[in-house]
């Protein structure tokens, strides 16, 4: 496999768009911590509140708990602006309503860099991805174009935004770029550990933040100079 290139850092603001609480924390949060430490402004938009993500917990109880945990998780990597939409966890649909919601956030936040999760059919290693991730990632890419067209979603009453320079997907099997997270690795672990209730409901490797994230960072680092790294697919605009 080819070596990974460094993610460009000639930007000052970013918007992270993912489907659920914990999505960015499984791999991408180390990069977020690096960038906020550089003084970059980063906000999060979550399409759902993760209400159906814990089998042992009623959704009405689960949703506010996962929102609270996501806010704490973001704080661990220097992010204070966190917004939640109300698309249904587990059955998020790709379509115009989702694109409109993401477009509205892009026009409000006006980021130069947009970060989403893996929306390919599989994960690195071959495991199948889930429909929510695919829908939100695809809608995010399309919303970047929508946000820059004044004639799409004019009902939002927001000025168009065509200033996005880069779009990247974390944890993609088609990764092209990476970020050195050696100095921010501990923050990434703390960010995932903030999802306490979610982790307690898991079993297996994903329930152990430090070793799971370290194995991912070491694997990415093998293609990026041997440092601890997190990978992204940088998408053409």
TrEMBL record:
GO biological process, one term: glycoside metabolic process
Protein name: N-acetylglucosaminyl deacetylase, LmbE family
A Pfam family this chain is assigned to: PIG-L
GO molecular-function terms, A-Z: hydrolase activity, acting on carbon-nitrogen (but not peptide) bonds, in linear amides
UniProtKB keywords: Zinc
Zinc recorded as keyword: yes
């Amino acid at each position: 496999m080819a070596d990974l290139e460094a993610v460009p850092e000639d930007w000052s603001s970013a918007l992270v768009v993912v489907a659920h609480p914990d999505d960015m924390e499984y791999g991408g949060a180390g990069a977020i911590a690096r960038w906020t430490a550089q003084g970059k402004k980063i906000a999060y938009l979550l399409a759902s509140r993760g209400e159906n993500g814990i089998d042992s917990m009623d959704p009405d109880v689960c949703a506010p708990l996962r929102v609270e945990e996501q806010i704490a998780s973001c704080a661990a990597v220097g992010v204070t602006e966190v917004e939640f939409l109300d698309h249904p966890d587990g059955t998020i649909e790709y379509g115009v309503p989702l694109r409109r919601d993401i477009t509205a956030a892009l026009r409000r936040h006006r980021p130069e860099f947009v970060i989403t999760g893996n929306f390919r059919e599989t994960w690195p290693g071959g495991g199948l991805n889930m429909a929510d991730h695919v829908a939100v990632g695809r809608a995010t890419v399309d919303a970047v174009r929508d946000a820059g067209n004044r004639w799409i979603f004019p009902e939002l009453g927001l000025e168009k935004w065509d200033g996005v320079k880069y779009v990247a997907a974390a944890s993609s099997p088609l990764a092209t770029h990476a970020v050195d997270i050696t100095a921010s690795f501990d923050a990434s672990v703390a960010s995932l550990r903030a999802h306490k209730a979610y982790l307690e409901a898991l079993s297996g490797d994903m329930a152990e933040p430090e070793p799971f994230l370290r194995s991912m960072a070491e694997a990415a680092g093998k293609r990026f100079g041997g440092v601890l790294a997190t990978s992204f697919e940088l998408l053409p605009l």
